[in-house]
Amino acid sequence: MNGHRPRRGRRRLGAFAAVTALAVLTGCGAADMTRQASPYAAAQGAKTVTLSVQSWVGAQANTAVAAYLLEHELGYRVDTVQVDEVPAWDALSQGRVDAILEDWGHPEQEKRYVQDKKTITAGGDLGVTGHIGWFVPTYFAEAHPDVTDWKNLDKYADQLGTAESRGKGQLMDGSPSYVTNDKALVKNLGLDFEVVFASSEAAQITQIRQFAKERKPFLTYWYKPQWLFERVPMTEVKLPEYQEGCDADPEKVACAYPHTPLQKYLNTRFADAGGKAAEFLKKFRWNVEEQNEVALMIAEEKLPPEQAAKKWVERNEQVWKPWVR
Asked: What share of the chain is helix, strand, coil (3-state, %, to 5)?
């Protein structure tokens, strides 16, 4: 996620569900686009759409619903490719994928591909605002209210430490592929903490839930929207206020993460000549509650993404019907 500033071909039903579910459950690594690319992306005359799907479950919820509607309402074959955030922009520019449905802000890539090369076209607002932050469990914040101010974190470093944090407090991050400011923040704010990466969103969720089960304190990088807040209430730690440009230099950043309206992007050739599929993806727009409804079915109920999408589509015709007109 900065898709959290963080960072598959299939048969009609089964492979997408199986592979995406595997990514959610095991946190398997994103594909290398030099070795895996859809043969259908940007294929002239082909009634096929290729979507980039990021590793976090909210992005998978977007893709599942979009794929289901493209197939069952508009008659397209949908192919998906999992790829890390920055390589996804390269793949989109080259036409190896047709669309990214949840981008958390990549100014360098936007300038290169949208403004300068014009190989990528903005596809509009997803309807969801994303925010990254540092969080502690609410049970710990209620017992120690001052922990929610970053200036007091060192006071709790011993309680927030683990075997992996080398005698310091632990700031738990997600996948090493996520683009975060956390190492710079810890250094520039002078905190006695060590950034420790989980291998994936799934691994981080497992660790958070284990800490919560044992009522242990923890400090974690996390993001909204995310279904886990429904199961483990967490309270944000207030970092120095975000100001426009305060994160421009990754080495010097010492401020909070922004609130980011999440965006969609389309390959320009697809945007211009992709017909009903391109128009549908431009219209696709839902809110946090709708995204979380699908994400919870995938992550908690362990439904294959296509089944979760089918359930949501059956319940919410009034929401999606305008997208397919």
From this structure: 40, 20, 40
* Distances 321 to 70, 262, 292, 313 between C-alpha atoms, Å: 12, 22, 19, 9
pLDDT of residue 300 exceeding 50: yes
d(CA 74, CA 276): 8
As a whole number, the mean pLDDT across the chain is 87
The fraction of the chain above a pLDDT of 90, given in percent, is 75
Distance, CA of 167 to CA of 193 (rounded, Å): 9
pLDDT in tens, 203-212: 999 999 999 9
The helix (H) or strand (E) run that includes residue 67 is: helix 57-72
Q: Under a CB-based contact definition with an 8 Å cutoff, are residues 94 and 231 in contact?
A: no
Residue 177 to residue 97: CA distance in whole angstroms: 20
pTM: predicted TM-score of the whole model, two decimal places? 0.74
The number of beta carbons lying within 10 Å of the beta carbon of residue 121 is: 21
